[in-house]
Amino acid sequence: MRGSPINTDDIQGKAYDSKLMRRLLGYIKPYKKYVVLAILLNIIVAGLGPIRPYLTKIAVDDAIANKDYNMLLYVVVILVGTLLFQAVIQFALTYFTQLMGQKIIYDLRIKLFSHIQKLSLKYFDKTPIGRIVTRVTNDVEALNELFSSGIVMVFSDIFIILWIFGFMFFMSWKLALITLSVLPVLFYATFLFRKKVRDAYRQERKYLSRLNSYMQEHITGMNIVQIFNKEKDEFKNFIEINYNYRNALIRSVFYYATFFPVVEILSSISVALIIWYGGGKVIQDSMTIGVLFAFIQYTEMFFRPIRDLSEKYNIMQTAMAASERIFEVLDDQTIIPNPDNPKKLDNIKGSVQFKNVIFAYNEGENVLKNVSFDINAGETVAIVGATGAGKTSIISLLTRFYDIQKGEINIDGINIKEIDKFELRKKISVVLQDVFLFSGDIKSNIGLNSEYISEKRLLEAAKIVGADKFISKLPNKYKEEVKEKGATLSVGQKQLISFARALAFDPQILILDEATSSVDTETEILIKKAIEKLLVGRTSIVIAHRLSTIQNADKIIVMHKGEIRESGTHQKLLAKKGIYYKLYQLQYKEQEISKVV
Amino acid sequence: MKSLFYLNKYFKKYKFRLLLGVLFILLSNAAQVYIPILLKESIDLLRTNMSYQLLLKYSGMIVGTAIIGGFFRFLIRVTIIIVSRKIEFDLRSDFWKHIQTLPTRFFQNNSTGNIMAHATNDISAVRMYIGPAVMYSVDTITKIIIVITIMLTLAPTLTIYTLLPLPLLSFFVYKLSKKIHSKFTKIQEKFSELTTKAQESFSGIRVVKSYVIEKSEVNHFTKLSGEYLDRNMEKIKIQALFMPMLFLITGISVIIVIWVGGSMVIENTLTLGEIIAFIAYLGLLIWPVIAFGWVLNIIQQASASMKRLLKIFNEKNDRVENTNANSNIKTINGDIEFKNVSFRYGPKLEEVLKNISFKIPQGNFLAIIGHTGSGKTSLVNLIPRLFDVTSGEILIDGINIKNIPINVLRKNIGMVSQETFLFSDSLKNNLGYGLKEINEEIVERVAEISQLQKDVDNFSEGLETILGERGITLSGGQKQRASLARALAINPKILILDDSFSAVDTNTEEEILLKLKEFMKGRTSIIISHRISTVKHADSIIVLENGVIAERGTHNELVEKKGIYADLHNKQLLEEELEEIE
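Structure tokens for the assembled complex are given below, as produced in the milestone run.
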């Protein structure tokens, strides 16, 4: 496909797997009517083609030989009629089978997408995003051919061949057998050709992907190539890769160059056999010339479906490989379980309790070791610690992005495992370090198209956090398009948008992972003010990077290697001269002058 | 269409093979066209006085002619298609050779994806013109001429009736495939929209889950999938017309032969053999006629692609080796002087550097400090001529750098830019990138200076560790240190560091600076930094502000001056004090 990324999931493996096939066919079920219609149309259309040479025979033997003008006109009218009929049916057939294929992959794509949305973060942690995207896009697309032309067209090709054979045997079974004697050779040649071409194609892809990644990389790094005077050496490298690609392409030219003439020669042999054997019969008067006419036309007709049939092998192989990957995702059940009878969370106050929590992303590597703490409703708690201390894990657990191994996490005294996870998440707003913006406009990025957020509330939230000021300066204000994940917005502006987003949802509990990246003074002041407003009137847990945030917190929890080592207020902890004191020094020292300027 | 003339020079290169290919086309067509004549004669003989021997002779001749024809068909592809692959290779190589000479400006204005699209899609489209289009058009034209001539000699009126529908076929193929192509482009657009949405939804999964907007994400995706389906169906509607239309028109021709021809046979003005010959000739003509419409499309697409390629081929390369570069200059010492240098990125853009003048004697250390956007990077980029000055001049050893051969200039400048870029190759090859041949000793030495040795010891493969997609990903700090080492490895006379320690922690930076001090001895160096501790020890410091030199002097002089620099310095001190109070 044009512009598609280099596909590392190569086409390999079995062309047929009955288990996979049965499962795939399950997706056709809702479209049974289409299938029945398609098969019916197929039988008709497959018969209409081969009928024409037979009609020619009648024209030659009965009309022309008997000098019967009316008969000739009669046959011609029937010929035109069948031709038109065939054209209409062929159109309908193609249209409906393709429509069916499109609908099936549409269903499958949405099913897959919805399923992936349900998967736990564990799945996203271990799977590269690019690969997940390929599943819902290219892999699903690869099934299109199977559903739209593969399954139905196999019938079509088989029917056409059967009809042709039928007519031939009906007219003269001996001549039919002799004419068809070239078929085994044709089958073998086609099979061999497909295999060779497939192998060659794989080689081509390999060298093409090498060429592409070389170019991609060196265009991006052209500066380095030029600064280091490496143009000549790099050109040599390029030529070598380009040369390998060229040779792979040339290799497959030979297969095509051989195959097509071989097919032509085989079809001529068929014709020669018809002339030789059939001609002999005509001399003996045991066969009419019209039969020869019909047979010569048939030889041209059955070569195409046979060639097509062999192509179906490729379609099957591609489809099997793609469906295996798709089903693997659909069968993935890393989903955070929801309780059957969830407890209500209507008037939540927002107290949070961690009780002897043990948590590991991977079995045996505990990231949190026996962590316990209490946060009263309405309090602000700052979590500090070096990278890898377990701060992020704490905030991911509260929203049940992951489930813990041991211990319990309670909100207002209720274990979060007993609460509907979607209800739970609605009560908690999370502001992450890297602000993620969706394509759309500013408004949709604050309200996230949620039905619960009114426009009024959305604008209010933007005003409160001070985002309103820069938004109203944008040419389209709140309708300003957000391009490429907000590339046109500054880091500070993006943060303000994410604050407005959190506030608009008016959560009982707020989780804030402060960004470390530096912003200019003016924005820094804006952000500080916004954070203050954000924390008012709700339980807040902040992974703090700002001095002001730490100072204003009701309590500071100091994490170190998965454990809580110290906790208390800023002054108290400083006086202790322990880990917090060191952390404080370290983080402060790292600040650059540009921040202050 | 004119743009395709550019390819003539490549055609000339393979003139002989191409002419041979054309000859093969003629020969194979001659053989192919002979078969219907054999058919006609044998059928007609059957009606009169056929013998078994003659039958065998005709059958044998049919197979023999087919083999000869097939053999030449094979040779056609082997000559013309292979030439097209070779020209594709030449064209791509020339494209790359040209790309390599283009200035930094070009790569800033064109995205990598865009350049890639030219190198892959456009070159493929042009290749289709060189190979299949040339092959089929010669084939089509010669075949049509020969076949029609024969048909006319056999039965002139029948020929005219029979061929009447065929131009229609060419026309429809041309129109429909053009339409399909445009619908296809539209499908591709939707598909990439769909891909973007999936990408976005999955990479933003934390936000999606936090704010419980899974449903609206699914709805959005469903909507896009629906639109994608609709666009596909639009194409399918046209595509579904293709086959029926094809056999409708060809079928009509055959029916005309049977009807008109049959009547003529009845009137004894035509033989049955001639009818079978006509049907066979129609079989021969159908593909060329279809190909005709198809080839027209290929030529159109190729010409559009060639136009885009030519735009790049004609891209001026404004920093090319000056013709008046003095080839006697084999090396440089490293005295640098900026003389009234002004610079802007485009004719209509604002000046980013205004009238800059300064001197750095050989072996000195100049530090540049200033806010983001003050012009620091633009200034250092002028020295290795990544960009050329708009006015004024830059002198090295008293010679205008435009008169120094560019490879001599660059060979002697070790530059570490702000954005670190490493190749997906081994660490060793990356560090020794600028060397003619990888020298272990040098690589280890520069790794030591840039404090990379400790990291290397932690990699299981050591210096052989592969970086990038197929290997390990380095941290920001490691990348910066690796690019520093790469610049040091070429033993430059001039060392330029553009904010090269921003991701390196302070301790490591201090250690590197300590080691660098030794290395910098006898070399001219320019260091851009945000940290006062880095620039403090420079022989002289320049403070850039909005493209002009606001202050200059040594650390002590500048502190005394009580200007911008002093302000920065004071603020830093103040913070240190604050830290102690709390």
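Confidence is low (pLDDT under 50) at residues 578-582 of chain B. The first strand of chain B starts at residue 336 and ends at 344. Further analysis is deferred to the final report.
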